[in-house]
UniProtKB/TrEMBL annotation:
Protein name: Uncharacterized protein, contains FMN-binding domain
InterPro entries linked: FMN-bd
GO CC annotation: membrane
Entry's transmembrane regions: 12-30
Organism: Natronincola peptidivorans
Gene Ontology MF terms: FMN binding
Top-rank lineage group of the source organism: Bacteria
Length: 139
């Protein structure tokens, strides 16, 4: 009789343990799902509006954009209403392919450039950081 009771206790403990694991996993994946949705909404809300370089005076401008899972900080140098240099500090390894946008912006003198396929989020964050820099005051 004692062995039967012990087996029942072990089964109950195993069931409680498995239930606890399932609840814990559900909470973890639920939080991750919510975080992913916030990330997607944040990236979706980023709009690249373009820049009016004729209104930007000479100087070095600092800008930042945060897309939750990816962010970027830039320093943009403007001379004679032209972007002459962009220094990029990409805060994540994600979307490193999007760093080619710096050259595209310099070449086109505009943030209205094609985003990098496979690095859409990083592309939008980098371009928005450049726009944010040029919307601010020179250092």
């Amino acid at each position: 009789m004692g062995g039967c009771v012990k087996k029942m206790k072990n089964k109950k403990l195993i069931i409680i343990f498995i239930f606890g694991l399932l609840v814990g996993a559900g909470i973890y994946f639920g939080k991750e799902y919510i975080r992913l949705q916030e990330y997607r909404n944040t990236i979706r809300a980023i709009e690249i509006e373009g820049i009016e370089l004729s209104k930007v005076v000479d100087g070095v401008y600092e800008g930042f954009s945060d897309g939750l899972l990816v962010s970027a900080k830039v320093w943009v140098t403007v001379e004679n209403h032209r972007i002459t240099d962009i220094q990029l500090e990409h805060h994540h390894d994600r979307g490193i392919a999007a760093e080619v946008l710096v050259d595209k912006v310099l070449e086109n003198q505009s943030t209205k450039v094609d985003i990098v396929t496979g690095a859409t989020s990083s592309s939008k964050v980098i371009l928005k950081a450049i726009e944010n820099a040029l919307a601010g005051e020179a250092e």
